[in-house]
Design a protein that fits this description.
Layout: H1 10-15, H2 21-39, E1 41-42, H3 44-48, H4 50-59, E2 67-69, H5 76-81, H6 119-137, E3 146-150, H7 157-169, E4 174-179, H8 205-210, H9 212-226, H10 232-250, H11 254-258, E5 262-268, H12 272-285, E6 291-296, H13 304-307, E7 316-317, H14 333-348, E8 352-356, H15 366-371, E9 376-378, H16 383-395, E10 399-405, H17 406-409, H18 413-421, E11 428-432, H19 449-453, E12 460-462, H20 467-480, E13 486-489, E14 508-511, E15 517-521, H21 525-538, E16 543-547, E17 550-552, H22 556-563, E18 567-575, H23 580-590, E19 596-602, H24 612-618, H25 623-634
Parallel strand pairs: 2-3, 3-4, 4-6, 5-6, 8-9, 8-10, 10-11, 11-13, 12-13, 15-16, 15-18, 18-19
Antiparallel strand pairs: 1-7, 12-17, 14-16
This protein binds thiamine diphosphate.
The site of thiamine diphosphate has 26 residues, from helix 3.
């Protein structure tokens, strides 16, 4: 009989006999594959965390013991086990459940930021609050705070800052390091074990570690490794790599312990009994401060199409047929256009290097990596470091291109301003998934980039309206970079194509009207504005249309021309407040414009998940919205 329909709450899970748990895990995997195939979402990370989530919810008592998920994309099993199975039919859909933990959805969810590497800081703070509460009341509080973090997310600076603080303050936190050896791509770190020495775990390694015989054996291994014969250069390198891997596999990373965080592991993350044992052992040792339990898992486990996907183990996927798996996941649209243009530029300029923060596939850098392996750098999930190492490269004479999602640049704001812009360094930022991104919810929209980056002194901020214009902008950016940094931001989804492109920092006039109204459209909004202009023309209104292209600085010729119209409408898919439209209107007022004006943009609020077009339409950022705004201005 099916087990999953009987699980409505972690208590139901705890009541199941241990021998039924593997069957439950199999049912959960099937459920997740089917659900994600219908809606799209995060797959590989969740398939890898099935046994881990089951064991966590059997040993710890959520929500009294908060279970916190770093990033949160791998929390589907947690959602299923905490009463949200039915919600999966509308995963990431309008009014449906979120693809991340959500405080609105469940008292079992605590954090929902979905930007990586933050969980240890949240856990530290919660532990400080718990202990403070205990102190003031004079009571004892045995609540456990459990923080689950992937090896990929462990590459982010905040995770180390928090570990340092946890170890120093000796806060009682249980850290579960879910090590599958991958971010999207293989993880950039020597801390990860998976994929190095072996993928097969011998049961009971944890116990061996606790055994004094192990310590003696460890010394023998060191001696054995020292005595290995080395023949030829390649053999020498291979032997060295092998030695390092064996050493790391058999020794608890001294790193954690040096910081004051005790270590248990590695544990087989697909063996529920072993996991439960390790968690109980963690609890029994947690009184004396933070402890990390190192769990080895396989990303995509149990679904062959995910296991066999070398690029990202189906980390995330659009809808697909479960019987045949998702079809090709290569870059499309603007991402593909960027990828091609960058390779072309790099063929002619040896100074060009490309940097990604753990997202070589999604940002379109895989082909570049293959073509120029020594000119490609993956920093791990470390946007701050990516930006400042780019600054260093630029200081050293290189022309770094930093390819990030728009939303993740937020993390490196200080580095962009002071490490790059203050030094007027030739760094080019290519920001993918700019604007409204949709399914991933509030933390993934790229709505800050234009409003913020246009305020950085000297920064040039470009927004292409077509793939061809993106390629032209990248070409021009290498020359513009002689005077300092350049940003190019472009959206996801189906791209516009146009044989007509602009150049440099010039705006492009796409239609000349009769002086009644000028529309200044930015990036993706140019497509919607073009349609609006056609609709208005059919109704007898002849509008002027400018493709803004350069958001900062704004093209003075465009401002002067727009100022001659009776009314002006600006349209952008970033925050309206502090946005490009209001800057343009301000410039026009200074140029003597006194007519009617409106700036369309994204309101300053956290925008829930939904289809991008539906979100944009709700803010009037589509052809119908533009037409209606123009009509109001001319009324
Ligand atoms: C600051 C930040 N940068 C990039 C991302 C995009 N991202 C989402 S999940 C992920 C990989 C996470 O790897 P890991 O923590 O090991 O989890 P896994 O999916 O392997 O279980 C990345 C790079 C993010 N969420 N946050």
């Amino acid at each position: 009989m099916a087990l999953l329909p009987r699980i409505h709450d972690p208590a139901d899970l705890r009541a199941l006999p241990a021998e039924q748990l593997d069957d439950l895990a199999a049912e959960i995997r099937e459920f997740i594959v089917n659900a994600v195939s219908n809606t799209g979402g995060h797959l590989g990370s969740n398939l890898g965390a099935v046994e881990l989530s089951i064991a966590l919810h059997r040993v710890f008592e959520s929500p009294q013991d908060p279970i916190l998920w770093d990033t949160g994309h791998q929390a589907y099993v947690h959602k299923i086990l905490t009463g949200r199975q039915e919600g999966f039919s509308r995963l990431r859909q309008t009014e449906g459940i979120s693809g991340y933990p959500s405080r609105e959805e469940s008292r079992h969810d605590f954090i929902e930021n979905s930007h990586a590497s933050t969980v240890l800081s949240y856990a530290h703070g919660l532990a400080v609050a718990r202990d403070r509460d205990m102190e003031t009341r004079g009571t004892s509080d045995h609540r456990h705070i459990v923080a689950v973090i992937g090896d990929g997310s462990m590459t982010g600076g905040m995770a180390y800052e928090a570990l340092n603080n946890l170890g120093h303050g000796n806060q009682r936190v249980i850290i579960v390091l879910n090590d599958n050896g991958r971010s999207y791509a293989p993880t950039i770190s020597n801390l990860t074990t998976v994929g190095k020495a072996t993928k097969k775990l011998s049961r009971g390694l944890t116990n061996i570690r606790m055994n004094p015989v192990y310590v003696r054996r460890q010394r023998r291994i060191e001696a054995f490794l020292r005595g290995l014969p080395l023949v030829g250069r390649e053999a020498e390198q291979a032997a060295e790599a092998f030695k390092a891997a064996v050493r790391e596999f058999l020794q608890p990373p001294a790193f954690f312990e040096a910081l004051g965080v005790r270590y248990i592991g590695p544990v087989d993350g697909h063996d529920i009994e072993e996991l439960e044992h390790a968690f109980r052992s963690g609890i029994s040792r947690s009184d004396s401060g933070p402890i990390v339990i190192h769990v080895l898992t396989q990303k995509g486990r149990g679904y062959s199409f995910a296991e066999d996907d070398d690029e990202k183990h189906l980390h995330d996927t659009p809808t697909f047929n479960p019987a045949t798996g998702p079809t090709g996941s290569g870059p499309t649209g603007y991402t593909q256009g960027f990828s091609e243009a960058l390779i072309k530029a790099a063929e002619h300029d040896e100074r060009i290097v490309a940097i990604t923060a753990a997202m070589p596939g999604p940002t379109g850098l895989l082909d570049f990596q293959e073509r120029f392996p020594t000119r490609f750098l993956d920093t791990g999930i470390a946007e701050q470091h990516a930006v400042t190492t780019a600054a260093g490269m630029a200081l050293g004479g290189l022309r770094p291109v930093v390819a990030l999602y728009s939303t993740f640049l937020n993390r490196a704001w200080d580095q962009v301003v002071y490490d790059v812009a203050l030094h007027r360094l030739p760094v080019i930022f290519c920001l993918d998934r700019a604007g409204i991104t949709g399914d991933d919810g509030p933390s993934h929209h790229g709505v800050y980039d234009m409003a913020l980056l246009s305020k950085v002194p000297g920064m040039r901020v470009l927004a292409p309206s077509s793939v061809e214009d993106l390629q032209q902008m990248l070409h021009d950016a290498f020359a513009l970079a002689d005077d300092g940094p350049v940003v190019i931001r472009y959206p996801k989804g189906v791209a516009r194509h146009s044989p007509v492109v602009g150049t440099g920092l010039h705006a492009l006039r796409l239609a000349e009207g009769d002086g009644s109204v000028a529309i200044l459209a930015v990036g993706k909004m140019v497509g919607a504005a073009e349609k609006a202009v056609a609709d208005l023309a059919a109704a007898g209104v002849k509008a002027t249309l400018w493709d803004v292209r350069s958001c900062a600085p704004l093209d003075a010729a465009m401002i002067a021309d727009a100022a001659r119209h009776r009314a002006v409408l600006t349209v952008e898919d970033g925050f309206r407040e502090g946005g490009i439209g209001l800057s343009a209107l301000d410039a026009m007022r200074h140029a003597g414009f006194t007519g009617a004006a409106e700036a369309l943009g994204v309101p300053t609020r956290f925008i829930p998940h939904n289809k991008p077009d539906a979100i944009l339409a709700s803010f009037g950022l589509d052809a119908a919205g533009i037409v209606s705004s123009v009509r109001s201005l001319l009324a």
